[in-house]
Amino acid sequence: MARIKLDVPPAFAFATELAVRISDVNYGNHLGNDAVLALLHEARLRFLHSRGLSEVEVGGCGLIMTDAVLVYKSQAAHGDVLLIQIAAQDLTALGCDIFYLVTNRATGAEVARAKTGLVCYDYARQKPVRAPEKFRDALASALISATPLEPPTTEKSFRDYRGF
Fold first, then answer.
1. Which of 44, 47, 83, 134 has the lowest tally of Cβ within 10 angstroms?
2. Residue 79: helix, strand or coil by DSSP?
3. Cα separations (Å) of 5 from 2, 68, 72, 73, 115?
4. Domain residue spans in the chain?
5. 39: Cα within 13 Å, side-chain hemisphere
6. Contact in structure between 143 and 91 (CB atoms under 8 Å)
7. What is the phi/psi pair of residue 159, to 5°?
8. Measured between alpha carbons, how far is 115 from 150 in angstroms, rounded to an integer?
């Protein structure tokens, strides 16, 4: 059976930590494949927030996911803290790719790697639009650089990301 291979960038511009919740665990007693995509979604929201953006507001439009690739490397269990690193790549006139590297914070084991394609989207008109300057400027600093990102030593609380 052919396997999907996904190369991730050598460096990342953002990192956050998320714990595996009991609701993320499947009947195999490990992190479920559907939960990985949900954890990546939360990490992406935090990444966008750190750049003054949201999925519904990136300078006059929102974002829509056009594709997702997930490659699983090892299991994670309830209570494991995952370090999710993010980098942007292939910024185009309409959007970009976001890469994710998920590792177990305690063991350093790679849990998963992923890529999502995001396109700027006008939900009112139901069509893709050109990436606004605000979006391009905000992602410029997240484009892959040569310097690896150090994992965070402290993390804002969940409440900090929700504007409470």
1. 134
2. coil
3. 9, 13, 10, 11, 11
4. 14-143
5. 33
6. yes
7. -60, -35
8. 21
Give CATH for domain 14-143. Answer: 3.10.129.10
- Return phi, psi of residue 47, to 5°: -60, -50
Encoded amino acid at 161, one letter: Y
- The secondary structure of residue 31, as a DSSP letter, is B
Residue type (1 letter), 146: A
Q: Which one, of 101, 102, 132, 99, lies nearest residue 117 by Cα?
A: 99
What pLDDT, on a 0 to 100 scale, did the predictor assign at position 64?
97
pLDDT at position 43 over 60: yes
Q: How many CB atoms lie within 10 A of CB 143?
A: 14
Please give the model's pTM, rounded to 2 decimal places.
0.86
Nearest CA-CA partner of 47 in 119, 113, 141: 141
Place of tokens 């960038």: 9
Residue 153 has pLDDT above 50, yes or no: no
